[in-house]
């Protein structure tokens, strides 16, 4: 049984201003195995974030079935950790309290919460900043808190919606490396939404290329280049060429259609 | 040698700014009072119509400490009068805060409450609290209750409006993050929506405490026989404008102090906000 099973997912948004329906996701079928690092790659507006929100339970598919760990997804839950595009931390809580927020909701005492959160503070490299508020930390540090917060729940899958998009190039590179290290250490299933071909190839061992409006899966590419990945190696470039060709083909099709 | 020449002219200028820094708050009031005193002593108006600041201070001093009974029956009774007003302010404000926040959060969070409760409240809102005075007197008599009722009316709506606004403008991604971490509906309100709405709620409370003082004094002029507002109105009948002004100053001072207290509580509660806002900047 796959960790995540998507069956015939269709999502239609009603565009009230134009008075018609917009087909956003058109019959998505996808199996994601446990411990996979899957990147959903596509241009903005292709519905990749919508697909992630459906898995997270934030949005309902118009039709189709979403199963996580064999169970139908009906609402958000702590079995699926989400890392948002913006860190989305509680601004009134310190880093450690943000990370341990799930435990607070479960009624765990303060000493125990902080004890358990410290492990994740160390894991994401924020030692010394545990009592800082989000406003006192950089965007990259806040996103680390967001990742630690998701990891602490020990979820079966982690869903990430372009979490590094707002970071500068250097921080982004650092965070990508750390994320891969965390994934290797903790063995979890990650679904990572991105519009960057390079990012998808650095991170994923499966890259799902999506088409634009309506969102469909163009191709799911398996990519098992050993890590750490050399982004200048011929294998990396071969894969990149292949994916870019898929995307270009797609834009030609759209240009002809219109 | 050059350093001596460079440093020399800097020092006195620096001292001057330092000396001025402690005084910057009192410059405007000092000038105003000096001008008023000069105008009052010039004889352009009879002293009874515009008492000089010194006369007002004299009246205030006697009212507070009972010096020479220039304020007659009020002499030495300031604390009693101020306390009577402050208790009405506190009572009405506390009730208004409690119900304003409860109703505001309910309306902001739930469509059901928004549809059932909000139209009625918004229709009551434009009615000036003062216009309730006749009914307040019939219902509650002449004592603390009508005053507290009026204070409640005046303080409730600012708290309500700001609480609704605070809840409605909570980032929906924070709510999603809460749901992702397994928050129940109740936890969503107490642990996410309420703290996120607090800056806005506090803004409402600060407006409300000002309204509370205004309405206490209004109520005391009409419906109560004690407190600063009563002293003010009573002195007006006896043409004691020095006491009228002393009462006005007392009200202003107490209102200012209540706001200062509220601001201190707000600064403690919203410490997390300070590094990102204009309020938190240095100097």
Key words describing this protein structure:
heterodimer; A: 258 residues; alpha/beta; Rossmann fold; six-stranded mixed beta sheet; four-stranded antiparallel beta sheet; 8 helices; 10 strands; 37% helix; B: 283 residues; mainly alpha; MetI-like fold; 0% strand; disordered N terminus
Give the topology.
The complex is a heterodimer of chains A (258) and B (283).
Chain A: E1 4-15, E2 20-32, E3 37-41, H1 48-56, E4 63-68, E5 71-72, E6 80-83, H2 95-99, H3 101-105, H4 110-123, H5 139-152, E7 157-161, H6 169-186, E8 189-194, H7 197-203, E9 206-210, E10 217-222, H8 234-257
Parallel strand pairs in A: 3-8, 3-9, 6-7, 7-8
Antiparallel strand pairs in A: 1-2, 1-4, 4-5, 9-10
Chain B: H1 2-7, H2 10-23, H3 27-41, H4 53-65, H5 78-109, H6 111-124, H7 133-140, H8 144-168, H9 172-180, H10 185-222, H11 228-237, H12 241-269
Helix pairs in contact in B: 4-12, 5-6, 5-8, 5-10, 7-8, 8-10, 10-11, 10-12, 11-12
User: Largest chain-chain contact?
Assistant: A-B, 28 and 23 residues
Q: Low-confidence parts of chain A, pLDDT < 50 over ≥5 residues?
A: none
CATH architecture of the domain at 1-79 and 190-258 in chain A: 3-Layer(aba) Sandwich
Topology, number of strands of chain A: 10
Which sheet architecture does the biggest sheet of chain B show? none
Q: What is the rounded Rg of chain B? A: 25 Å
Order of SSEs of chain A, N→C? EEEHEEEHHHHEHEHEEH
User: What oligomeric state is this?
Assistant: heterodimer
Strand content of chain B is under 5%
- Structural category of chain B is mainly alpha
Number of helical stretches of at least 4 residues of chain A: 8
Q: Roughly what fraction of the amino acids of chain A lie in strands?
A: 15-25%
Q: H/E order of the elements of chain B?
A: HHHHHHHHHHHH
CATH class label of the domain at 1-79 and 190-258 in chain A: Alpha Beta
Number of helices of chain B: 12
How would you name the CATH homologous superfamily of the largest domain in chain B?
Answer: MetI-like
CA-CA gap between termini of chain A: 41 Å
- CATH-derived architecture of the largest domain in chain B: Orthogonal Bundle
């Amino acid at each position: 049984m796959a960790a995540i099973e998507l069956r015939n997912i269709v999502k239609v948004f009603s565009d009230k201003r134009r008075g018609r329906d917009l087909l956003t996701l058109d019959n998505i079928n996808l199996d994601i195995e446990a411990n996979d690092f899957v990147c959903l790659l596509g241009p903005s507006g292709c519905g990749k974030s919508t697909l992630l929100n459906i898995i997270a339970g934030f949005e309902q598919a118009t039709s189709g079935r979403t199963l996580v760990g064999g169970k139908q997804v009906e609402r958000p839950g702590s079995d699926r950790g989400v890392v948002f595009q913006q860190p989305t931390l509680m601004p009134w809580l310190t880093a450690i309290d943000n990370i341990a927020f799930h435990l607070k909701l479960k009624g765990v005492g303060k000493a125990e919460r902080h004890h358990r959160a410290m492990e994740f503070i160390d894991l994401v490299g924020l030692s010394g900043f545990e009592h800082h508020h989000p406003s006192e930390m950089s965007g990259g540090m806040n996103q680390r808190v967001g990742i630690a917060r998701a990891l602490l729940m020990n979820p079966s899958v982690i869903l990430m919606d372009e979490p590094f998009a707002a970071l500068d190039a250097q921080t982004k590179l650092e965070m990508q490396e750390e994320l891969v290290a965390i994934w290797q250490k903790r063995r979890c299933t990650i679904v990572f939404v991105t519009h960057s071909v390079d990012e998808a190839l650095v991170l994923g061992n499966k890259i799902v290329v999506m088409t634009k409006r309506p969102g469909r899966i163009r191709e799911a590419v398996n990519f098992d280049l050993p890590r750490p990945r050399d982004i200048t190696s011929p294998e990396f470039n071969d894969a990149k060429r292949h994916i870019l060709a898929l995307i270009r083909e797609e834009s030609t099709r759209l240009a002809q259609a219109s | 040698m050059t350093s001596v020449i460079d440093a020399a002219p800097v020092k006195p200028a620096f001292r001057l700014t330092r000396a001025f820094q402690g005084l910057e708050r009192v410059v405007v009031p000092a000038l105003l009072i000096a001008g008023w005193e000069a105008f009052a002593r010039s004889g352009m108006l009879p002293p009874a119509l515009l008492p000089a600041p010194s006369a007002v201070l004299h009246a205030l001093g006697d009212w507070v400490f009972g010096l020479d009974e220039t304020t007659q029956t009020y002499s030495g009774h300031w604390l009693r009068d101020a306390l009577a007003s402050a208790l009405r302010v506190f009572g009405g404000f506390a009730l208004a805060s409690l119900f304003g926040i409860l109703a505001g959060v309910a309306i902001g969070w739930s469509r059901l409450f928004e549809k059932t409760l909000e139209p009625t409240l918004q229709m009551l809102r434009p009615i000036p609290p003062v216009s309730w005075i006749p009914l307040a007197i019939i219902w509650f008599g002449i004592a603390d209750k009508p005053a507290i009722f009026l204070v409640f009316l005046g303080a409730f709506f600012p708290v309500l409006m700001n609480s609704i606004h605070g809840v409605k403008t909570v980032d929906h991604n924070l709510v999603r993050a809460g749901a992702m971490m397994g928050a129940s509906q109740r936890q969503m309100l107490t642990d996410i929506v309420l703290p996120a709405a607090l800056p806005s709620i506090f803004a409402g409370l600060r407006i409300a405490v000002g309204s509370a003082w205004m309405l206490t004094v209004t109520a005391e002029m009409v419906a109560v026989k004690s407190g600063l507002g009563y002293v003010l109105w009573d002195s007006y009948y006896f043409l004691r404008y020095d006491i009228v002004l002393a009462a006005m100053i007392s009200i202003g001072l107490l209102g200012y102090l209540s706001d200062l207290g509220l601001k201190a509580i707000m600064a403690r509660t919203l410490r997390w906000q300070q590094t990102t806002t204009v309020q938190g900047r240095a100097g």
